[in-house]
Amino acid sequence: MNMQCSHCHHADTKVIESRDVADGEAIRRRRECINCQHRFTTYERIERPQLIVIKNDGTRQLFNRDKLLAGLYRACEKTSVTSLQLERLVANVEEELYGCGESEIPSAKVGELVMQRLADLNDVAYVRFASVYRRFKDIASFEHELSQIRELKSNEKSRAVKELKL
Ligand SMILES: [Zn+2]
Fold first, then answer.
1. Residue 12: how many other CB atoms lie within 10 Å
2. Which phi-psi region, left, alpha or beta, contains residue 76 (left: φ > 0; alpha: ψ -120 to 50)?
3. Nearest-angstrom CA–CA distance, 110 and 94
4. How many CB atoms lie within 10 A of CB 166?
5. How many other C-beta atoms are found inside a 10 Å radius of the C-beta of residue 72?
6. Low-confidence ranges of the chain (pLDDT < 50)
7. Which has the least CB within 10 A, 36, 86, 103, 153?
8. What is d(CA 101, CA 49) in angstroms, rounded to the nearest whole number?
9. Which residues surround ligand 1, an ion (CB under 5 A)?
10. Ligand 1 centroid distance, CA of 10 (Å)
11. Kind and range of the H or E element at 103?
12. What is the reported pLDDT for 166?
């Protein structure tokens, strides 16, 4: 990143020293202007842009990874899914969300990204999460969801879904 001189506003400065501060969350740089040799210090904070989630009712709230993770833990109770797998899943979803370049994302999109990945991990967790996330309006939409995942999965795996008490 180039930085204008704070003294003469020349566009080019060189970095003469650079070090991490605050556990790598920020970088302190000593800079020197190539025009007037003025020296100054900048701090670059490594910060992700804020991600706004648009809920179905149109309200907006900040994306909250902890809340998402908590919901996933609930969905994965008494399944073989490990916390490491969930951490990876959330990190993966976050990467995709931040990578898409949008600052506002519909909650349905977040849900889809999570559910795609959860379906690969565990059917039971997937259906539990989907039922909470989508707040199925009626049993028909829930059954539609189930039939879709059954089509996707092998016979062996779909038996696990049938074992869910609906
Ligand atoms: Zn200067």
1. 12
2. alpha
3. 9
4. 10
5. 24
6. 158, 165-166
7. 103
8. 10
9. 5, 7-8, 10, 33, 35-36, 38
10. 5
11. none
12. 46
Contact of 13 with 31, CB cutoff 8 Å:
yes
**How many other CB atoms are there within 10 angstroms of residue 137's CB atom?**
8
Tell me, in angstroms, the distance from the centre of ligand 1 to residue 79's CA: 62
Contacts of residue 25, defined as CB under 8 A and 6 or more positions apart, other chains included, come to 45, 46
Return the structure tokens found at 149: 């995942």
Q: How far apart are CA 85 and CA 93, in angstroms?
A: 12
- pLDDT reported for residue 165: 47
Q: Are 142 and 131 in contact (CB under 8 A)?
A: yes
Distance 40 CA to ligand 1 centre (A): 10
| Structure tokens that stand for 10 in this block | 């020349």
Question: Which residues does 146 contact at the CB level (< 8 Å), separation at least 6?
Answer: 127, 161
Tokens 């976050």, located at residue: 94
Amino acid (1-letter code) at residue 165 = K
Alpha-carbon distance of 95 to 110, in angstroms, equals 12
**24 φ, ψ to 5°?**
75, 5
Phi/psi at 54 (nearest 5 deg)? -95, 115
